[in-house]
Every structure is written in C-alpha cells, then in structure tokens.
Design goal:
Layout: H1 3-6, H2 8-19, H3 25-36, H4 41-50, H5 54-64, H6 69-101, E1 106-109, H7 111-119, E2 129-134, H8 139-148, E3 151-153, H9 160-166, E4 169-174, E5 180-184, E6 205-210, E7 213-218, H10 220-233, H11 239-251, H12 257-266, H13 270-284, H14 298-312, H15 321-330, H16 335-347, H17 351-356, H18 367-384
Parallel strand pairs: 2-5
Antiparallel strand pairs: 1-2, 3-4, 4-5, 6-7
Helix pairs in contact: 2-3, 4-6, 5-6, 7-11, 10-11, 10-12, 10-13, 11-13, 13-14, 15-16
C-alpha cells in the first residue's frame, strides 16, 4: 500500500490545512512539510475529486506551488470542472428565461448560484446537474416548459397529480447536451420525513446575478437550513459539503440565528443543524454563533466524531448500510421524527422504483410494495456479497 494510504491521517490533516480560509502558523508549516514530502499525487487527485474539493485545492496550490506535480494534476481536474460548470450555468440561464416567460416561479438549489454566492466563482464547486424547486401546482407546466427547450423526462406517462402524489422530484435530461435537471416540488425526498409542508418556502427569497441575469434562491436562513439538511441526509459523505457550510457562514455574517433555529425546530432537525455546524467547526474551525450553544452538547460532539471517523478516518468510507440508517435516526430530534424517518425510508417511492418496474395506471398504488421488494433484494445481495 502506498505512503498516502499508510499515512492517511497525516494526509487528511494536510488537506484540511489547505482548505482553511485562514491557515494558522502550524497549518502553514504542515502544508510545507506535506508539499516537500513524497506522496502519490494520483491517489490525492482521486480523493479530492471524489470529495468535490479538487477546485478548492487547485486554487490554493496554484497560489502557493504553481509548478508542483500535484498542482498540475489538480489543474487537469479543475479545467474539466470549469468547462462543465460553464456549460451547466448556461443551461440554468436558459431554463430561468423559459420559466420567466411561462410565469413559473422557481428557486435554484445549490449548483452554480451557491458557488457564486460563497466562493465568488462558479468554477470552484463541483456540481454535475441542476436542482430547481417549483410549486407543486406548477409541475405540469414546468415539465412542458422544459420539454419545449429540449429536455425529456426520465419517467413518462404520469399525470401531474400522479407525480405529486408519488414523488417529490422528477429528473429530465437534455437531448443534445445530456445535462440533467432535477425538478423538485419538495426540497428533499419524502423518505427523509422532514415535513417541509410546515415551512413557507416561497415567502423569502434572494436574487443572485449570473452573467447579468438575476435568479432567485431561498433567503439566507432557509438556504442555510437546506444545505444542512441536504448534507445531513447524505451523512456528510463529501467533504465539499462541509466546505460549503464553512464558507456560507463566513460570507453571510448577518444570518438571523433565531429564525434558523426556529425553522430547524419546525422540521424537528435541531440535532442535524448542530451536528452539521459542529463538523464544520471541528474540521475547518468554523466559528459557531452563541445561540447554538443550547443545541450543542456532548451528544452533538459524539455524533460529529463518529461521522468523521466513518467517512474521513480512512481513504474510503467504512460506514455500512445499517450504521448509516442508525446515524440518520440519531440525527433526528425526537422519537416521532425517528419513527417517521424509518417508516418512510421503507415506503416512500422514489424515481428509481418507478424505473425498476413500469406499472399501468390502475396498479400504480402498488409502488410502495415495489420499493419493499427492491430493498429486500438489496439486503439479500449485501448478505451474499458484503463488499458489493
């Protein structure tokens, strides 16, 4: 096994030092020792790409070590990301214009606007698709609008009412470019049981300018909570999501924390909020607001440390399926929200369930059973081949 894997803890600490907004003297010395040492640049580049941090590492190393082999390797990844991001951003502008002309209200989730908002550059964040939120009553019109400019839905022959009753998102792919758009009418899948219906998603918004065009995102507080819950539902498996939270808090110092905490309480996601920000604090020294103190206890610290050990303690995540489910449960605030998460994880239908088996109209109410069947097959396969 190469030196990078044998000394992964040292390597990971060096990468964190490079990702800091303001590196300490100790971190700067660590960077010098790291860059003067011997390591597998291809392993590091793969790791950085998998965690979505290649653009950020390249930017820092380009300023410090422009001719270093690692910088050059990351440059290749950065240019590929930049090209893709520019193309996706152009598609976003086209969609926003189409929605505007069709009088469809929307909010852009993550993607180019988040990169521009917190990094000041659309090329410094990896994203492979577009996520756009619409109102449930606009599903049919939004699908027609996107099809008018060349997008084809991944699932067809479903009415708007059927989609609203069955799913929370629909994927569409552009026929020429292959750009994937995920059209959401709820910010996260029903299976995570966050209860977004309790929140006014359309009351507050903010505009971000992309190539002289203004596009709408959530207001600062709701946008932060969305980023928290998006990374929480994936158990923070990508280091870039921690970087996003760190930069978001540093670039939005006037966040109304009372509103954030109240929104998290409505969604019964106070634990998710505290653990997310504790992770950013531990890994990137993100300052925590004093109002978060009542939410941050020994349990918060323990969960954050378990996530770090499971995802970042080795070069590949060591978390199994049951451990991930247990952690998701522990990130919820109360027994009721945990029970809802468990129930919906088994019975809430997703697009992959519809793609597995196409049922005719009268039988579409059976899709929850299709999901149970798929989960059972997946579990049996994991028993037969645990490493798969």
């Amino acid at each position: 096994m190469d030196r990078s894997q044998n000394n992964f803890a040292e390597l990971f600490s060096s990468l964190l030092a490079l990702l800091q907004v303001d590196s300490s003297t100790e971190e700067r010395e660590r960077i010098v020792r790291f860059m003067d040492g011997s390591f597998d640049i291809y392993f590091i580049a793969r790791y950085a790409s998998r965690h979505g941090i290649a653009p950020l590492l390249y930017k820092r190393l380009h300023a410090l070590y422009p001719g270093h082999p690692l910088t050059q390797q990351l440059q290749t990844l950065y240019y590929a990301t930049a090209q893709e991001n520019i193309s996706i951003s152009a598609r976003l502008l086209q969609i926003s214009e189409q929605f505007r002309s069709d009088f469809i209200e929307y909010r852009v989730l993550k993607g180019p606007l988040l990169a521009l908002d917190i990094y000041g550059d659309i090329t410094l964040r990896q994203y492979g698709d577009l996520d756009i939120l619409i109102k449930e009553e606009d599903i049919g019109r939004a699908l027609e609008s996107l099809q008018h400019i060349g997008y084809a839905p991944l699932i067809s022959n479903f009415s708007s009412d059927e989609l609203a009753a069955t799913l929370s998102v629909m994927g569409l792919v552009h026929r020429d470019t292959g750009t994937l758009v995920e059209l959401h009418w709820k910010p996260t899948s029903d299976k995570y049981a966050y209860g977004w219906e309790k929140i006014d998603l359309w009351g507050q918004s903010r505009e971000i300018t992309l190539h002289s065009k203004s596009l709408k995102v959530f207001g600062d507080e709701l946008n932060l909570l969305y980023l928290v819950l998006h990374s929480s539902k994936h158990l923070f498996i990508r280091l870039s999501w921690i970087c996003d939270l760190d930069r978001y808090l540093r670039t939005h110092p006037d966040i109304d924390w009372e509103q954030v905490i109240a929104l998290a309480g409505e969604l019964r996601a106070g634990r998710s909020l505290s653990v997310s920000l504790k992770l950013a604090n531990i890994l990137l020294r993100t300052p925590l607001h004093p109002l978060l103190a009542p939410l941050t206890d020994d349990r918060t610290e323990e969960l954050a440390r378990r996530i770090i050990q499971g995802h970042y303690g080795r070069c590949v995540s060591t978390m199994g399926g049951w451990e991930r489910m247990r952690l998701l449960m522990e990130l919820r605030d109360d027994p009721g929200s945990r029970a809802a998460l468990l129930f919906r994880s088994f019975f809430s239908v997703e697009m992959s369930d519809l793609e597995t088996m196409r049922l005719p109209g009268p039988l579409r109410r059976l899709y929850p059973l299709v999901r149970i069947w798929r989960l059972g097959v997946k579990y049996i396969r994991s028993l037969i081949s645990p490493s798969s």
